[in-house]
Specification:
Elements: H1 3-25, E1 33-37, H2 44-60, E2 64-68, H3 75-82, E3 90-94, H4 97-104, E4 116-132, H5 140-149, E5 155-158, H6 164-176, E6 181-184, H7 188-196, E7 202-206, H8 207-215, E8 219-224, E9 252-260, H9 265-278, H10 282-290, E10 294-295, H11 303-324
Parallel strand pairs: 1-2, 1-3, 5-6, 5-7
Antiparallel strand pairs: 3-9, 4-7, 4-8, 4-9, 4-10
Helix pairs in contact: 2-9, 2-10, 4-11
Length: 329
């Protein structure tokens, strides 16, 4: 054997053994598992993460905490995980932004499909088309009539560039073939405040943000964006956008879990196994249903299928975003 190779062989074997040991030991005793949320505390993704953290503690046998790393539309938190030590103790919970950021950001600091290990999907969150309580319309047909009578005057609120409400709004305008004045805000909170106050007309946003306002009759609800009607009491009477004539209109704001690229396969399996157990937790399911979210039970729970799904979503949203001409540096 080459003397150099002879010298390096034990080192290489030791490195492999160390990685294997770390994978086998995961989670390390007395070391927390951090779920990084790339948005501010109190938002819909943060709520999902905190519910998930509780459900993961038992199957992982570890303390699970939520760490908020907000900014730049979720890219700061995602990049933090992409660059983290790949030992399973730092994971990411992100929503549909994982599939829209490649088109929205010219200088994305990571490669979505290459820099993460995909751990499995968590939930699907439907969207609702809602309006200010003072709108004269009370159903979708009346809304369409009112919009046509007010061309050039209708405005549509969103929570900022790349937000779920922004993306849904883009698709809604395209499907309606109706131009509206979009009004971006710095978050869902201020957007909803102005909708409640009657300063803006419409918004398309997640049930996690709208269900309570709909139930309290503080806003008017016109439709849901899912393929089938929802069973949630506050939303069960709302038609789907497909029912009112928008073929193939289906938008859900899903959440998935990720680890840094290079996380050992054994650790990825432990995280995936724990996620599958957590998503069957009755308390977690109850909390998600209360938010109008649907816990994932299909093949997207498998890492490979999760990755395939995100790739399809990137292909779906890229043309929509490029057509709208919206970009961030």
């Amino acid at each position: 054997m080459n003397p150099l190779l002879k010298t390096l062989a034990p080192v290489a074997l030791a490195a492999v053994a160390t990685v294997g040991a770390h994978a086998a030991d995961f989670p390390v005793k007395d070391k927390v598992v951090s779920i990084v949320v790339p948005f501010a505390a109190g938002g819909p993704t943060d709520r999902v993460a905190r519910d998930l953290a509780e459900a993961l503690r038992k199957p992982l046998g570890a303390t699970v905490v939520v760490e908020n790393a907000a900014g730049a539309g979720g890219t700061i938190g995602a990049n933090k995980v992409a660059k983290a030590q790949p030992d399973g103790h730092t994971v990411l919970l992100h929503h549909i932004g994982m599939s829209t950021q490649p088109a929205l950001y010219r200088n994305l600091p990571y490669k979505t499909m290459d820099d993460f290990e995909f751990l499995g999907m968590v939930n699907d969150v439907p969207m609702t088309v809602i309006g200010r309580s003072t709108l004269p319309a009370n159903n979708f047909a009346e809304l369409r009539t009112w919009m046509n009578a007010n061309k050039g005057k209708v405005n549509l609120a969103n929570a900022g560039l790349g937000a779920a409400s922004h993306l849904c709004g883009l698709m809604f305008m395209e499907a309606m073939q109706f131009d509206m004045t979009t009004v971006p805000y710095k978050g869902t909170g201020p957007a909803m405040t102005d909708l409640l106050g009657g300063q803006v007309d419409l918004m398309c946003d997640q049930t996690t943000n709208t269900s309570g306002q709909i139930e309290a009759k503080k806003v008017k609800a016109f439709a849901v964006t899912t393929a089938k009607r929802l069973s949630t009491p506050a939303l069960k009477d709302l038609p789907t956008l497909q029912e009112v004539g928008m073929k193939n209109f289906e938008v859900t704001i899903w959440h998935g879990m990720y680890a840094p690229k290079g996380t050992p396969a054994a650790t990825v399996k432990k995280l995936n196994d724990a996620l599958k157990v957590a998503l069957k937790d009755p308390e977690f399911i109850k909390k998600q249903e209360g938010l109008g979210a649907i816990v994932v039970t299909d093949k997207r729970l498998e890492p490979a299928e999760h990755k395939k799904f995100v790739a399809a979503e990137i292909a779906k949203w890229g043309p929509v975003i490029k057509k709208a001409g919206v970009y961030a540096d």
